[in-house]
Design a protein that fits this description.
heterodimer; B: 2 domains; 29% helix
C-alpha cells in the first residue's frame, strides 16, 4: 500500500477517534434530524417545501458552521501534533513528506466532508422512504458546493498550520481569516455599495474573491435563480457569468483556492523545520 | 556511516548546534551526553532530517532532507518522550511496519523479548500504556525494522531490570551490524552500552573519547549483605528483583552485565549499610572472576 494511502488511513482513523469528530458528526446529523422532527419539510417558505425547503435551510447552516469548524479542527490537530511531539516520532519513519502531507489532507477531507454529505444523504433517503419528492439536481449541486467548500477551508487550514509554530497562533490566525471572510459577506458589501465610498466594481470583485460569498451566492442561486435578494448586484453576476456558469465557478473557485493554499502549505512544510 | 560537516543550526539568535564536525563509523556505539540545551536533540533532529540546517549531514552518503525515505529507511529512532499517539497499539505497529517494508511480526517478536505481549495491548491507545510499555514498544519498532543506525534518546530510562537486560542482549546482537547513537543526560546510564563517548555543551563537542568495550550480554549473580535491615535499600533492591533472606540482611539477585555501573551507583547511596557485596561473573559465562568487596 502506498505511503499516501497509509497516511490518509491513519489520519481518518485518528480523526474518527477524536472528540471533535463526534461533535461535528452529531451537529450535522442532529440538524437534519431536528429539521424532520420540527416539520421543516411540511412548512413552506418562498415557495419551497418538502426536501427542497430542508436542503435550502441546511446549506445555510452548513455555511455558518462548516468553515470555522474545519479551520479550527485542522489547525488544532496539525499544530497540536507538532507541539506534542507526534511529528517528531512519526516523521522519523521512512515516509515521504509529500505522502505524509497530502495523505493527511485527503484523509481529513473525507473526515470533514462525509458527515455533512451523509446527513444530507440520510435526509434524501428518509424522504424517499416517506414518499416525499427528492430534488436530485439540487442535491447534486449542493453536494458539489459543499465538497468545494470543505476542500477550500481544509487547504487554508493546512496552510495556516504550516506557517504557525504553535497551536495558539494557528487558532488565532484561523479565526481571523474566518472573520475577514465574514466581514466581506453580502450584507456588509451591500452597505458599502450604498454608502458609495468604494467603486461598485471593487465591491463585486471582493464578493467574487471571497470563497464564503461565492458559496453563499451559488447556494442562493438554486432557489432564487434571478438573485432578486441581491438587488442590482445580481445583474453583474448574470451579465458576467450567467446562472449555470456561476454554479460552475462556485465549485471551481473554492477548489482552486483550497488547492493553491494546500500547495503553498506543502512548500512551506517541505522547506522549513518539520518539528 | 554518519558524517557531519560544519553542521550549524540556529533558532533566531540562539545557535543550538555550532559548526559541528563529526564522523561516526559503522559498528560504533556512541554515548551522546550533555546537559539540557547542550544541542544533543537538535543534532539528532538534523540527522533525521527534521530540521533545516547549515553545513552538511550525510547518512550512508545520502542527505537526510533530499533522500529522506532512503536515509530514514536505515535509521531506527527511539525518542526521549513517547509521543501522545491516540491510535491503538495494533495500528501503530501496522503503520510502522508498512512504511518500513517490514512485517508486524518482526516488531512484535522483539516486543515479546522485552517482556511486552503486544496482543494484550493491541486495542489499547498508545498514550494509555505505562511509561515502560511505551518505551518497550518504541524500542521494538526501532529494532524490529532491522535498521543500520539506531538513534536512541534515553532508551532504557523507563525499563525494569529484566527488560534492561533483554534490551542489552538485543543491542549486543546488533553490535557488528548497527551503528548506535545513544543520547543521555547521565553517562552512567549508558556507559556500559558504548565504545565511544561524545559530550556536548552549548552546541559544540567538548569531549570525544573511545572507551573500553564492555560485554552487553550476561548476568552477574549478586549478593548484598547489610549491617541491619533497612526499608529504603530493601525497596531499591526489590525494584531490581532481589530477594531477601528471612532476617532481611542478605539480598540475592541478578544484575545485567551492562548495568553493573548503574547498580553499583545505587549501592553507593547506602554504603554505610553494606558489610559485603559480591558480583559473580561466573554466572553469566562471560568471565571467571568474582568481584567482591567487604565494607569495613
Amino acid at each position: 500500500m502506498s505511503h499516501l494511502v497509509l497516511t490518509a488511513r491513519l489520519d481518518v482513523q485518528e480523526s474518527v477517534r477524536a472528540r471533535w469528530f463526534l461533535v461535528y458528526a452529531l451537529i450535522f446529523g442532529g440538524i437534519v434530524a431536528a429539521f424532520f422532527a420540527f416539520g421543516v419539510t411540511e412548512s413552506r417558505v418562498l415557495g419551497f417545501m418538502g426536501l427542497s425547503r430542508l436542503l435550502v435551510t441546511y446549506i445555510q447552516l452548513v455555511m455558518a458552521i462548516m468553515p470555522i469548524f474545519i479551520l479550527l479542527t485542522t489547525v488544532r490537530s496539525v499544530a497540536g501534533d507538532r507541539e506534542a511531539g507526534v511529528f517528531e516520532y512519526l516523521l522519523s519513519l521512512p515516509v515521504g513528506l509529500g505522502s505524509w502531507y497530502w495523505g493527511r489532507i485527503f484523509g481529513r477531507f473525507l473526515v470533514v466532508f462525509l458527515p455533512v454529505f451523509l446527513a444530507m444523504l440520510g435526509a434524501a433517503g428518509w424522504a424517499v422512504y416517506r414518499e416525499i419528492e427528492v430534488p436530485w439536481k439540487m442535491f447534486g449541486v449542493y453536494t458539489g458546493l459543499m465538497a468545494a467548500m470543505s476542500w477550500c477551508f481544509l487547504g487554508l487550514g493546512m496552510w495556516i498550520s504550516t506557517l504557525a509554530r504553535s497551536t495558539d497562533v494557528a487558532q488565532g490566525a484561523a479565526f481571523m481569516m474566518w472573520l475577514v471572510f465574514l466581514l466581506f459577506l453580502d450584507l456588509i458589501l451591500l452597505g458599502v455599495l450604498i454608502q458609495g465610498r468604494v467603486p461598485a466594481n471593487a465591491v463585486i470583485a471582493i464578493a467574487l474573491v471571497n470563497p464564503l460569498q461565492v458559496f453563499r451566492t451559488g447556494a442562493l442561486m438554486l432557489f432564487d435563480p434571478q438573485l432578486v435578494v441581491f438587488g442590482p448586484a445580481a445583474y453583474v453576476i448574470h451579465d458576467y457569468f450567467g446562472g449555470p456558469n456561476f454554479i460552475v465557478y462556485a465549485m471551481a473557485y473554492p477548489t482552486l483556492v483550497g488547492t493553491l493554499a494546500a500547495g503553498l502549505g506543502y512548500l512551506t512544510f517541505r522547506r522549513g523545520d518539520l518539528v | 556511516m554518519i558524517r557531519l560537516s560544519r553542521l550549524t543550526k540556529s533558532f533566531k539568535r540562539l545557535r543550538a548546534v555550532d559548526a559541528l564536525d563529526l564522523g561516526i563509523e559503522k559498528g560504533e556505539r556512541i554515548a551522546l551526553v550533555g546537559s539540557n540545551g547542550a544541542g544533543k536533540t537538535t543534532m539528532i533532529r538534523c540527522i533525521l532530517g527534521e530540521y533545516t540546517f547549515e553545513g552538511d549531514v550525510a547518512v550512508g552518503g545520502k542527505h537526510p532532507r533530499r533522500a529522506r525515505s532512503e536515509v530514514l529507511g536505515r535509521i531506527g529512532f527511539v525518542p526521549q518522550l513517547p509521543p501522545p499517539l491516540k491510535m491503538p497499539v495494533s495500528e501503530l505497529l501496522r503503520f510502522s511496519a508498512a512504511v518500513s517494508g517490514r512485517k508486524v511480526s518482526d516488531i512484535s517478536e522483539i516486543a515479546t523479548r522485552l517482556g511486552l505481549d503486544v496482543t494484550t495491548f493491541a486495542r489499547q491507545p498508545f498514550f494509555k500504556l505505562s511509561g515502560g510499555q511505551k518505551q518497550k514498544l518504541l524500542i521494538s519498532i526501532a529494532l524490529g525494522r532491522n535498521a543500520e543506525v539506531l538513534i536512541m534518546d534515553e532508551p532504557a530510562a523507563n525499563l525494569d531490570p529484566e527488560a534492561r537486560h533483554a534490551f542489552f542482549t538485543l543491542l549486543a546482537e546488533r553490535v557488528t551490524t548497527a551503528t548506535m547513537l545513544i543520547s543521555s543526560h547521565r553517562l552512567d546510564e549508558v556507559a556500559a552500552l558504548v565504545n565511544r563517548v561524545i559530550e556536548m555543551d552549548r552546541g559544540k563537542i567538548v569531549l570525544d573519547d573511545k572507551v573500553t568495550d564492555s560485554p552487553l550480554t550476561g548476568l552477574l549473580a549478586c549478593t548484598v549483605t547489610l549491617r541491619r535491615p533497612d526499608l529504603a535499600i530493601g525497596k531499591a533492591l526489590t525494584e531490581w528483583k532481589f530477594t531477601p533472606s528471612a532476617d532481611g540482611l542478605v539480598w540475592t539477585g541478578s544484575v545485567a552485565g551492562a548495568d553493573r555501573l548503574r547498580f553499583t551507583g545505587l549501592l553507593s547511596r547506602y554504603v554505610g549499610l553494606l558489610t559485603r557485596v559480591a558480583l559473580d561473573e561466573k554466572h553469566s559465562g562471560a568471565g571467571n572472576g568474582v568481584a567482591e568487596g567487604a565494607a569495613p
